Automatic annotation (TrEMBL):
This is Glutamine--fructose-6-phosphate aminotransferase [isomerizing]. The keyword Nucleus does not apply. The gene is glmS. The chain holds residues 246 to 605 of 605 of the full protein. Residues 40-179, 212-350 form the SIS domain. The lineage of its organism: Bacteria, Bacillati, Bacillota, Bacilli, Lactobacillales. GO terms for molecular function: carbohydrate derivative binding; glutamine-fructose-6-phosphate transaminase (isomerizing) activity.
Length: 360
């Protein structure tokens, strides 16, 4: 049950530090060595390209892990929207390995692709929260997120749990490959720091509620912007806000805004910028924020320690860059939750939606 919580979504947001710690105990031993099925590692080592197939939030989680997977496994990673791939696959590499990301393990669009890859005899891994689910049974391998039941329609802990699960996979494969970055990446320590960063963000609920009250309560539209890893988080943040608050929201690559879409900025249009601790791009994203502010936007800046400034609205504790999608998404989950709550909507059961989409 949801205990003292008004909605499952808030409970599930709060559970995320526990999910991170659970994954550490599940996929690493006491000495910090990876506990990932050797057959999965071998299958990925034998492949020349990883294809991640998913829908919605799980698709966004794939992006959150893409850079890390490529860096640590030396294997290119391509993302595919399940509903697009179900009706004609693009030209595949010689030795593809498929990863299906699915909280429920029951998404029909994703299964449609799995049926095809099985027909082609290609190896696959399902990363899911539901043991024994269809996608888990039908794929070659399974890795469980173990986040506990996710009841709210809007997915939160499955997103962060998927990225963390893929981190263990990436490190395990990278170590087997002798990849120096993989060996140097102290995942157990880094993920513990992520859990602490999440806890710090969770203690900012009141501040976030106030930001929502002042700048998001009346609006019909909004933008999330960011570059690189932050762009991927922007896509997930905007999906979440749309889904449960019905605010039309676009997640945009910050530098791409000026190539057309900036014409939508009006007085008080909320523009929420995500700026993680990547000095190479942080200044550029700030420049893009200024461009929108000079056109009347109401900017909200979520910045990570290291590149944060005193007047930023929300500051997130710094984590390893591979894991920043996990920590940076937390304030955006709370923004979506608060916007839905303050608008008096049914946070857990948005209109027109089902938890698992079992039709194509
Ligand atoms: C968004 C959301 C959906 C699901 C999507 C995939 O909050 O819940 O976008 O992420 O339907 O579902 P799974 O991961 O079960 O395949």
């Amino acid at each position: 049950g949801k205990g003292t919580y008004p909605f499952y979504m808030l409970k599930e947001i709060d559970e995320q530090p526990t999910v991170m710690r659970h994954l550490i105990s599940e996929y690493a031993d006491e000495n910090g060595a990876m506990k990932v099925d050797a057959d999965i590692i071998k299958a990925i080592q034998a492949s020349d390209r990883i294809y991640i197939i998913a829908a919605g939030t799980s698709y966004n989680a794939g992006f959150g892990a893409k850079q890390m997977l490529e860096d640590l496994t030396n294997t290119p990673v391509e993302l595919g929207v399940a509903s697009e791939w179900g009706y004609g696959m693009p030209l595949l590499s010689q030795k593809p390995f498929f990863i299906f990301l699915s909280q429920s393990g029951e998404t029909a669009d994703s299964r449609q692709v799995l049926v095809k890859t099985n027909e082609l005899g290609l190896p696959s891994l399902t990363v899911t929260n539901v043991p024994g689910s269809t996608l888990s049974r039908e794929a070659t391998y399974t890795m469980l997120i173990g986040a506990g039941p996710e009841i709210a329609v809007a997915s939160t802990k499955a997103y962060t749990g998927q990225i963390a699960t893929l981190a263990f996979l990436a490190k395990a494969v990278g170590e087997a490959e002798g990849n120096e970055k993989a060996k140097a990446f102290d995942l157990v320590t880094e993920l513990s720091l992520v859990a602490q960063s999440i806890e710090a963000s969770l203690s900012e609920k009141e501040a976030i509620a106030n930001i929502v009250k002042e700048r998001l309560l009346e609006t019909r539209n909004a933008f999330y912007i960011g570059r690189k890893q932050d762009y991927y988080v922007a896509m997930e943040a905007s999906l979440k806000l749309k889904e449960i608050s019905y605010v039309q929201c676009e997640g945009f690559a910050a530098g791409e805004l000026k190539h057309g879409t900036i014409s939508l900025i009006e007085k008080d249009t909320p523009v929420i910028a995500l700026i993680s601790n990547n000095p190479e791009v942080a200044a550029h994203t700030r420049g893009n924020v200024m461009e929108t502010v000079s056109r009347g936007a109401a900017a909200i800046v979520i910045a990570e320690e290291g590149v944060a400034r005193e007047d930023d609205d929300i500051v997130v504790n710094a984590v390893h860059p591979y894991l920043s999608a996990i920590s940076m998404v937390i304030p955006t989950q709370l923004i979506a939750y608060e916007t839905s709550l303050q608008r008096g909507l049914d946070v857990d059961k948005p209109r027109n939606l089902a938890k698992a989409v079992t039709v194509e």
